[in-house]
Amino acid sequence: MNNSVSNTARLLGAALRALLVLTLVTGVIYPLVVTGVAQALFHDKANGSEVKADGKVVGSSLIGQSYNLPLKKGQQTPDPDLKWFQGRPANGLGSNSLNTRYKLLLSGATNLSADSKVLIQQVKTAKAAVVKDNSVPGYRVKASAVPADAVTSSGSGLDPDISPQYAQIQVHRVAEKNGLSVAQVEKLVKDHTEGRTLGFIGEPRVNVLELNIALKDLLAKP
Fold it and tell me: What is the model's pTM?
């Protein structure tokens, strides 16, 4: 009996020591080491890839933002603010209907098939809007020139980037709305166009948030 109690106590003691050691290693030391390495070597990415303007955080380079006008009375969907570069459509976004104490957006894809009538109509409507919004006196956008990313949403609905082709289509409209020359706006797009990652991964892209911040800075110059 005494041996049984002694063995049980010894096993419990060993188990508690193992629990304490593993808690210390995996719950304290490991997180601190990983956090320290991340902050030292990847400070920007570890903190959410924050984008700052005028000394304040205005967003993340990984999450797209909308540039819309305030909703008018009776309006369900806001009109785009055409003085800014516009990102991709966000048809897959949903709203929080369970906990209404918080105003949340739920990211996601539309999950519509390629032959879906709803998707086909969304693309047609978006293409017509791109042509209409970006055609200004002296410059007309051709429907055949509208790239796919201008009329389709990404898998998350929060893609922060657009293609250089879509950015270029918007140049004349942004220049006209802001009283800038086309050359000035084209230079902004060129300066904010990133190539393929490592030279072969993905496609060239333009971050809309960073581009619009640069546009705002340009407009602020005397």
Answer: 0.81
- Show contacts of 169-176: CB within 8 Å, 24+ apart: 169/130, 169/134, 169/141, 169/145, 170/85, 170/86, 170/134, 172/134, 172/136, 172/138, 172/139, 173/82, 173/133, 173/134, 173/135, 173/136, 174/82, 174/83, 174/84, 174/85, 174/215, 176/136, 176/137
- Find where tokens 């990984």 sit: 62
User: How far is 129 from 151, CA to CA, in rounded Å?
Assistant: 9
Per-residue model confidence as pLDDT tens digits over 25-43:
999 999 999 998 888 888 8
Distance CA 53, CA 3 (A): 71
| Torsion angle in degrees (nearest 10) through CA of 67, 73, 76, 81 | -20
Which residue positions in the chain have pLDDT lower than 50? none
pLDDT digits (tens, 9 = 90+) for 111-144: 888 889 999 999 999 999 999 999 999 999 999 9
DSSP state of 135: -
Nearest to 85 by CA among 66, 57, 104: 66
The string of DSSP codes covering 18-34 is: HHHHHHHIIIIIHHHHH
